[in-house]
Design a protein that fits this description.
alpha/beta, two-stranded antiparallel sheet, TIM Barrel, 12 strands, Xyl_isomerase-like_sf, 41% helix, 10 helices
């Protein structure tokens, strides 16, 4: 496995982020926020600029972290909103998102990146949570099948991320879509912290019994990309899940990295620290140490 980092987690200025990533010994980066927009919105001229910068700093792209199907209403009357204004995301209906996906796939090929991130639809603001219902899964699957058709035409792999703000917040839930569609061009982006963070009162009971280790064991054959961040839970706070530097919170990364090594994982573990600048730099250093340790153990 190898370490990657989402550039806007370091700095919103792409060149600054690339320079720091290289300084910290990274060979790969992941692209989401660039030039004040989400990566799938970029023009050919902007992508050529990105390619020049990547070549300058001798960096490769592990994932195009698009926001396809995030701010996209799953049902006709759904209202979806952005939880964080610093997280750039496209909006619009399914056809709009599919057009952006085609651009994301073409961007991936221009940057020699094998995968594009998509989401299992943001949960709406205007109806009560009911995660993972069969009706929702059927609708998500219908739309993801259209996305996969584009991916197959463009020969780019889609990675579906389990997201706590989506209909399928746990890896054990989002894997249903991947398994059912059965395409070589659809895999899983596993974020263990997102699984941990999922609102337990909104998750069906059958998914609450799995530990992160059990989840990893079950979903591993379909994992193509991994996001890494950490949380510390404090019930006394209004927002009890607090972002902390990598390996300073509740997630058992010793278990995760040892199992990934045991299973023979060869792709990226990509840092999405969601912390302040100094903690992100510390997380970058610490994760490089973990990856090196895993490779040498």
């Amino acid at each position: 496995m190898y370490a990657s980092v989402i550039t806007d987690q370091i700095d919103e200025d792409l060149e600054t982020a690339l320079r720091i990533a290289r300084l910290y010994g990274y060979t790969h980066v992941e692209l989401h926020n660039v030039f004040g927009k989400s990566i799938e919105e970029c023009s050919l001229k902007e992508i050529n600029t990105i390619r020049t910068l990547l070549n300058t700093y001798e960096l490769k792209v592990s994932c195009i972290a698009s926001t396809v199907f995030f701010l996209c209403p799953l049902m006709e009357n759904d209202k979806v909103s952005l939880f964080n204004p610093a997280f750039h995301a496209i909006e619009g209906d399914v056809p709009t998102h599919l057009r952006y996906l085609k651009n994301a796939c073409r961007i991936a090929k221009k940057l020699n990146c094998p995968r594009v991130r998509i989401f299992p639809f943001r949960f709406p603001d205007n109806r009560p949570p009911a995660y993972g219902t069969q009706e929702h899964i059927a609708l998500i699957m219908k739309n993801v099948r259209q996305a996969v058709q584009i991916a197959e035409e463009e020969h780019v792999t889609l990675v579906l991320e389990n997201c706590p703000y989506s209909h399928l917040p746990k890896g054990h839930m989002s894997i249903q879509i991947v398994k059912a569609i059965k395409s070589d061009y659809l895999k899983l982006l596993w974020d263990p912290a997102n699984s941990y963070r999922a609102y337990k009162e909104n998750v069906p009971a059958e998914y609450l019994t799995f530990s992160l280790e059990e989840e990893l064991h079950y979903i591993y054959p379909w994992i193509d990309h991994i996001h890494i961040k950490d949380y510390a839970y404090n019930a006394a706070l209004e927002k009890p899940f607090q972002h902390v530097a990598f390996d300073m919170g509740d997630i058992d990364f010793m278990m995760i990295f040892s199992n990934l090594r045991k299973y023979g994982y060869e792709n990226a573990v990509s840092l999405e620290a969601e912390t302040d600048y100094n903690e992100t730099l510390e997380s970058m250093k610490r994760m490089q140490d973990w990856v090196t340790l895993s490779d040498n153990t």
